[in-house]
Specification:
Layout (H helix, E strand, L loop, with lengths): L20 H10 L14 E2 L11 H7 L10 H14 L3 E5 L2 H12 L5 E4 L4 H9 L3 E4 L20 H10 L7 E4 L12 H13 L4 E4 L3 H11 L8 H10 L3 E5 L10 E5 L2 H14 L10 H13 L3 H21 L11 E5 H4 L9 H13 L1 E2 L1 E3 L1 H4 L1 E3 L2 E3 L5 E5 L7 H16 L7 E5 L10 E4 L2
Parallel strand pairs: 1-10, 3-4, 5-6, 6-7
Antiparallel strand pairs: 2-8, 7-8, 9-14, 11-14, 12-13, 15-16
Bound molecules: pyridoxal-5'-phosphate.
Length: about 450
């Protein structure tokens, strides 16, 4: 088979800036060893997130110009709503400025003390919104997900017997149940259609509304097409439609599979809840026909939602991640396997076996990638998911570094450069020392925490 190439040509370019290793050492110290605090201009290849960093297409930029900025009843809202309903199928579409605003609406109206909300793995903002409301966020991902090296094709699946047990033990306390496709906090791994069907049936059996955190629904649909028997002949859109037909609603960050720089929505079937959400939306986001978006955003996103389901794009998208995983594994760098949809997840504990979890090995790897290559990744380990309880650190169960791929932004040469940087880090792996936290916020601490080298 011929090489899978980037299925686009480049029409507008944006220069990226090289810095020296010495400069980057200083920048890192000034940023308190937290790459979230580095100026983006000082980053060469920015893999901090695939959120809001996608390149829009010529067709999306053209759509921007026809945006209708009317406060109420904007034409662009109706176009947006129509596209969302075509793919997602829900009765009510509530536009928000990004995914967490949709989560906030649900958590505010349905969360609260005593309530528990299950998921495969809650993403950090989902968990934070639920916990902030006083409710509990419960992770019930399948056991295969815990084995980083297992090649199980649907490691985002929920453990159905555990879900059933959980719902039986917590009758009346579960205001809604979720699943995240693909499972971002669990390696960008997909959920199978068979599992989605079982999740839906189990929630229904217990009378629990089923909400899909659908940020990467197109990538999940592509994995189902590739890996699940009976779906090879279906289009990604048909698969997506089948997924959402199983649920009662969805939260969406259009900064992911919507090809947007900003945007999101909450979609629901239930009229009363939709009405309550809209009332709260007016208070926090804006009028129900724009939420937190401009008319031009909604136009560009309606086009993006169509482009994200194109097969050429999805084939290239998923292959990019797979290619980096293959090359890194060949070097002996352990990653979450199989390759996920939007990011490479490097196992920092096996990369720096000499560092205990209390020394934040994944944060160290993030810093070293920046120091040696100007590459910015993100820690998904004890800085993000660990906790400080009375000054004692409770570690996370994994120490991963996520290298998220902005959509349609970097080329294969950028990826090859990154692989060379890993070769350098491997040679110097014994020389590094750990980090400790100097200052932290009570929630979502990883965004702003200050670190300091241990020696
Ligand atoms: C990004 C993300 C969110 C939150 O969306 P924002 O647009 O960043 O607010 C929620 N869930 C998952 C799985 C995500 O990846």
């Amino acid at each position: 088979m011929p090489e899978i190439i980037e299925p686009f040509r480049i029409k507008a370019v944006e220069p990226i800036r090289s810095t020296t290793t010495d400069e980057r050492c200083q920048i890192l110290a000034d940023a308190h060893y937290n790459p979230f605090l580095i100026h983006a201009d000082d980053v060469l290849i920015d893999l901090l997130t695939d959120s809001g960093t996608s390149a829009m297409s010529a067709a999306q930029w053209a759509a921007v110009m026809v945006g209708d900025e009317s406060y109420a009843g904007s034409r662009s809202f109706y176009r947006f709503q129509e596209k969302v309903q075509e793919i997602f199928g829900f009765n009510f579409v509530i536009p928000t400025h990004q995914g967490r605003a949709a989560e906030k609406l649900l958590a505010t109206l349905l969360g609260g003390p005593g309530h528990k909300i299950p998921n495969n793995n809650h993403f950090d903002t989902t968990r934070a919104n639920i916990e902030y409301s006083g409710a509990e966020a419960i992770d019930l991902v399948c056991s295969e997900a815990k084995d980083l090296g297992s090649d199980y094709p649907f490691k985002g699946n929920i453990d159905i017997p555990r879900l059933r047990e959980f719902l039986a033990a917590n009758r009346g306390d579960v205001p809604f149940g979720m699943v995240t496709i693909t499972n971002n906090a669990g390696g960008g791994q997909p959920v199978s259609m068979a599992n989605l069907r079982e999740i839906s049936a189990t929630y229904r059996e217990f009378g629990v509304p089923f909400i899909i955190d659908s940020c990467r629904f197109a990538e999940n649909a592509w994995f189902i097409k590739q890996r699940e028997p009976g779906y090879g002949h279906k289009s990604p859109k048909e698969i997506a439609q089948e997924i959402f037909s199983l649920a009662d609603g969805a939260t969406m960050s259009l900064k992911k599979d919507g090809f947007g720089n900003i945007g999101g929505f909450l979609a629901l079937n239930e009229e009363k809840l939709a009405e309550q959400c809209r009332n709260l939306l007016i208070l926090t986001e804006g009028f129900p026909t724009y939420g937190g978006m401009a008319g031009r955003d909604m136009e560009a996103l309606a086009v993006g939602l169509e482009e994200t389901l194109q097969e050429d794009y999805l084939r290239y998208r998923v292959r990019t991640v797979e290619y980096v995983v293959e090359r890194l594994n060949k070097l002996g760098v352990q990653t979450v396997r199989p390759a996920g949809g939007h990011a490479v997840y490097v196992d920092a504990r096996s990369f720096y076996p000499q560092l205990p979890q209390s020394a934040f090995p994944a944060q160290v790897l993030v810093c070293e990638l920046y120091r040696h290559g100007g590459i910015r990744g993100v820690e998904i380990g004890s800085a993000m998911f660990g906790r400080s309880v009375d000054g004692v650190e409770i570690p996370a169960d994994k120490e991963l570094v996520r290298l998220a791929m902005p959509r349609r932004v970097y080329t294969q040469a950028h990826m090859n450069y990154m692989i060379e940087v890993f070769e350098v880090l491997l040679k110097e792996r014994e020389q590094v020392s750990g980090l400790k936290i100097l200052k932290q916020a009570p929630i979502l601490r990883h965004f702003t925490a200050w670190f300091e080298p241990l020696n």
